Amino acid sequence: MSVLLQHVYTLGKIEHGQLPVWIDLLQKLEEITARTGHLSSYLGCMGAADAGNETIQRETAAAKAARAELVKIFVVIRTALKEADEEVFAALLNAPELSAATYFIGRLRKSASWSMEPELEALAADLDATGLSAWGRLYDQVSGTLEFDLVVPGQETRHVPVAMTRSLLGDAGPTVRKAALVGANRAWEQMSNVTAACLNAIAGARLTL
After folding, report:
1. pTM for the structure as a whole
2. How far is residue 15 from each of residues 8, 85, 137, measured CA to CA in Å?
3. 49 contacts: CB under 8 Å, gap ≥ 6
4. Which of 163, 183, 201 is nearest to 51 (CA)?
């Protein structure tokens, strides 16, 4: 991804003579974006199924870092689309190879007017990968591995994951709902310092950005 980012930096403005190069780039990015989306979904499902798996955690962090590079590529593209004159932009949209992507490209050009300076957008992408998303992953890991004893009068005590809390709170039996609430709250209290730090960092990062 970093090699492609360096290549994008060398392209310069979108001009008639450069249209084939930009068309080729946008086609490549369509496939890359789809693949990274599939990978993110796969790792998300794997992480949800086994929050304590260190290999999945490592690969998820690596995927987030690669995603940051992809975001920076689109930062450059948005800027180039914004600076392209109407005639050149129309020619780009009319390229047969991009016929299915005209709406997306138009949105990229429009969103450039809502964006920060390219340097700040690139910085935000890096901070998301190492800051906001990292705190989010820690919160997911903690919540995914946390368990509690479900103590329902008249029933055998069960050791259940905190992830089941929401389902248990919808149980038809009021004693089950109460037991789930009490047990889950007790489990979260044991991790209150960690989860408070996670939530504060996530909220603070969003407000800063």
Report:
1. 0.60
2. 14, 8, 42
3. none
4. 163
The DSSP line for 113-170 is GGS--HHHHHHHHHHIIIIIHHHHHHHHHHHHH-EEEE--TTS--EEEEGGGHHHHTT
From start to end of the chain, where are the E strands?
Answer: 147-150, 158-161
Phi and psi at residue 95, to the nearest 5°:
-65, 125
Q: Which residues of 15-26 are buried (b: 16+ CB within 10 A; e: fewer)?
A: eeebeeebbebb
Report pLDDT digits (tens) over 12-41: 888 888 899 899 988 888 888 888 889 888
Tens of pLDDT, residue by residue over 104-131, are 888 888 888 887 777 777 777 767 666 6
- In contact, 142 and 195? CB cutoff 8 Å: yes
Please state whether beta strands 147-150 and 158-161 pair in parallel, antiparallel, or not at all (unpaired).
antiparallel
Instruction: Round to whole Å and give the CA distance between 36 and 59.
Output: 12
**Main-chain phi, psi angles of 170, to 5 degrees:** -100, 10
> What is the DSSP secondary structure assignment for residue 13, as one 8-state letter?
S
CA distances in angstroms from 72 to 50, 61, 84, 117, 118, listed in the order given: 31, 17, 19, 12, 8
Distance CA 101, CA 162 (A): 42
Q: What is residue 15's DSSP assignment?
A: -
Phi, psi (degrees; rounded to nearest 5) at 56: -65, -40
